Amino acid sequence: MTHKFDLEVIDYKKVSSIEEAWNTQDYTAILELMDNDDVVGMSDSDIKEMCMMSLNDLEPEEAANIVLTHLFGEIVTSGKIDQIASQMSNDRLWEEFADPQFHEKLFNAYGLLREAFNGIFTKPTGVITQLLIHAENEQAQQQLENAPKATLVRIISQGLEDSSLMNRLFDEQIAGQDFEEAEGILWRVTVIKKSELQTEYEIISSELWLGDLENVSGFKASIRAESTED
Prior knowledge:
Elements lengths: L1 E14 L8 H10 L10 H13 L3 H13 L5 H10 L5 H4 L6 H15 L8 E10 L2 H9 L1 H10 L7 H5 L1 H5 L6 H4 E9 L3 E9 H4 L7 E7 L6
Antiparallel strand pairs: 1-2, 1-5, 2-4, 3-4
Helix pairs in contact: 1-2, 1-3, 2-6, 3-4, 3-6, 7-8
């Protein structure tokens, strides 16, 4: 059994940073890692400026290590963080890191470090797109709502060439049932507006995954229904 969807690309743009990816709590935490946490009475903008200046006072690799420790310190060993930091100025780790669950935070790290150092680090390439999805029936709509990221990746994959990276790397997950990697492929999925069988989404991801949508206006997709509905 399959579910059918119509997809329309309403808007597509490339970005090098994500709005509100960083906040005052992040800047304060990074300052604390640099033993520079005297921010009492400072405005949010001054705390950010102080954070940028403090990072810029370090060597780029050391600054990268601080930012990565803030982002991944609880889940990644210090040795692995050292290794990632040493690669950041030359590599595109928001695309190349093996686990896509790390990609969004690495993208944000590059954006912050580029701002602090006025370049040096590779400019990250992301995509913000607005997609209008029309489901054929209530069951298809329910599957989309139950597992939005996995279902959206499966729908989007059908508008891409078979040779696209998404289809080549995740062909088994797209055709199958479990698709944990979808959480890392689509970084942010926001419902803009919704009617009974039609939903407009804003999706933020890497150009690595959604770059091939740039010249696509729309398409029809037919994906496998969840087994509980068969």
